[in-house]
Amino acid sequence: MQNNIVGTMRQFKIMDYGSSFYPFNQAGSSGTGPGGGSIGEKFLERIHDHLRVNSFRSRSSQPIQNLQVDNNMLAQGLSIYGLPQKDLIEPHIEPYLKSVNFIESLADVYGRVESCPESEKSRVYVEQCALLQGLHDPNLCKRSLKLARQHAFDVHSKVVLSAALKYERREEELLGISSMECSGKYLDCPKSTLIPGYSPEFVNDGCGCHRTLREEDEVECSVDEEECSISEEECDMSFWIGSEEVRCNRYYMSSLSRPFKAMLYGGFMESKREKINFTYNEISGKGMKAAVIYSRTKSVDSFDLQVVLELLSLANKFCCDEMKSSCDAFLADKVVDMETAMLLIEYGLEETSYLLVAACLQVILRELPSSLNSPSVLKLFCSPEARERLALVGHASFDLYNLLRHVAMDEDMKANATVMLLERLGECAAEGWQKQLAFHLLGCVMMERKEFKDAQKWFKIAVEAGHTYSSVGVARTKHKRGHTYTAYKLMNSLISNCTPSGWMYQERSLYCNGKEKMMDLNTATELDPTLSFPYKYRAVLLMEENKTAAGITEIEKLINFKVSPDCLELRAWFLISQEDYEGALRDVRAIVTLDSNYMMFHGKLDGNHLIQLLGQHVQQFNQADCWIELYDRWSAVDDIGSLAVVHHMLSNDPGKSLLLFRQSLLLVRLNCNMAAMRSLRMARNRAATDHERLVYEGWILYDTGHWDEALAKAEEAITMKRSFEAFFLKAYALSDPDSSLDSANATYVVQLLEDALRCPSDGLRKGQALSNLGAIYVDSGRLDLAADCYMTALDIKHSRAHVGLARVYHLKNQRKAAYDEMTKLIEKSKYNASAYEKRSEYCERDMAQSDLSMATKLDPLRTYPYRYRAAIFMDDHKEAEAIAELTKAIAFKTDLQLLHLRATFHDSMGDNTSTIRDCEAALCLHPNHKDTLELYHKAQKQAKEEQT
Question: Where does the record place its TPR repeats (predicted)?
């Protein structure tokens, strides 16, 4: 290849510890700020002195009484729950669409999105969302749902997709916000959802709800009765309702519909009568008077709710389409809460009022998951008859039942209502992928209910519909029903006929023993190191062999890069057996932070209760001691330990929003984004002041991609109070993650960070701010100032600053010093895969390969080592090995950069088909990635030229 790919690879950005600022491209900028020296050594010295004085340097002098306990008591007390059992840790069957050729499936759905007509895009985006769910990245699903909603044509689809998007965003919502409250954005507006038609270009615009409300307040909504009434001279006929006469004009009444016109002007007897008996048409005199008024005004706005319901019924009987539409729109506008929705939806279903039912459904769906606990709501959706009633009104769809089953499965996978909703989903399924999903999910639910015969039936139907992964369900149910050898043969056949994947070997391992089982588990880990079952099985096996320490080491291989409650539980279990109660307490605190309702020991003991038990066997720290412990954990880059300390601090001070905010930051570091958003939302809800509330709302907006709104919150907070977090938030909000900082913005961000550092805060946050400030100095060429920032951060135990300092040394051509800095971080860090990866940049190829191999061993999800090794192969003209290196990682880590690099390699080899496939898969993950789009269009052009 003409260009050195290794050199190119070294330019790929590797995320620094905690740095979220992006480089600006002004090289050689001055080292002084706008004031000719306001950004410099004196400022850094002041910050250094301030932090040195205000940092915790020693544990509290307050004595803590040592607890005199019998350490065997807890182990004996917990012996009732037994030790971990291999038979009870078998992997769950994943309740998602799972393709055996995932990259090809991604490419296919992206290609169809690009080529299908506008009317089909929404449907394909929903399919894309279903496919992406298996990646467990909620942001990808939200984006697909947003695009599906953006391209939806009909009201029903808009209502359902808006509700689905709202459900996915539920962790981002703030306390006290009504489910029907409009944010001012067209896409989220409940009223806009009920407007039929296609308007994707307006989705990012304001909806005008607040302006409309103000205008309505200014206009008096009264109706002139004289204007609506009909003079006696105009009345030429009357309707009799019982003994009540309703005078009207024949012409106006005939204009309501063709049946009325036929009755009043056709060959019927009524056409020759001045008085018509209307007693038996189920309308009151008041309702008939309203119909007379409507015949002139074509408006129902002056009538009360009951009268409009009567008009709706009359409109249906006499095919008054215009009056029905008016009634439908009027009633839909009145649906604002659950009580009204549940009352009016019955009228809507009875009278087949499309818009009214849509409005009622919108309220019900936007109240999920709580609304699904109502028996009336379940009755509305669950039975076949209920689905048929909805279908008659145009409101039974796969999308509707897919949302309902998703919520039901989250709430209680085994419930009868869940099964019934899945059955309705299957009835609505029309396309192949819809049938695959519906029947596979039915199999999963029946499996959970231990109804293995029914589960096997549904899994088989899913396989017949084309969902190969459902073969796992067929095999598992055969095994449960005593046909283990048949299950083994089925999985053996799958491995032979498909490209082998880690999950295939993992599944086959369940149906064999001894060395063959361990070989399959080891192969599963080799093909997909993210699968948790092989680690858990090997760890429990080691424990059964009285090798508990080795078992802990085995499960920690997974915990080091993939934190989950079940793996932390297993380690806690092992630690309890070793009487390491402090370590066990750390893990249980982390578990409860991730899932407050987690049940330990195969679902037998509440996690919070176990914390109380373990707490009796360890020393208790006060809040000051906890802060010191938090510094130590933070310095050791021990995020799980830090999370446990914060949980302890919150138990001492549960209303402290600052601690909840710290908790959210740690959860982000551990890639537990939903739990992080939950903590951040709790911090906002428990904020003691308006200033705090604004800051936390700003961080919520920032984390959800609303940078302009986050900036506005930060500025509002600063006007109330100049605080570290407000300035820090503003600095982040100005650093657009999708672009580089220009010179002017960089200077302003520097000033904001300086302002933040002058405000009171703890060393943990100030260390982060100093690191970010140093990163901007590096990108602007002010290396000495950057070094001062990083050294000041290191003085307050912010170990992650070693990364930035190493970068400074490297840019100064002091590679040995850079290498040494990363070595220091490796020695300090508990979890140091990133440090090995970064150190590889500062050494020769052989040593770099060694460091990257260690990084992959510690964290196989880090993509840079695979890209580097693949680039080495390409530089050595070993194209097949380069492609294989990337393919190995892509098999378990569907990553934009991996796919883009493989596409680049295919392009250099002239393989346009493979280039297009990888580009399409990458664009499915990130549709606006500029480099991939350019490569994609180039490959398409070349492919067309070859065909001609």
Answer: 767-800
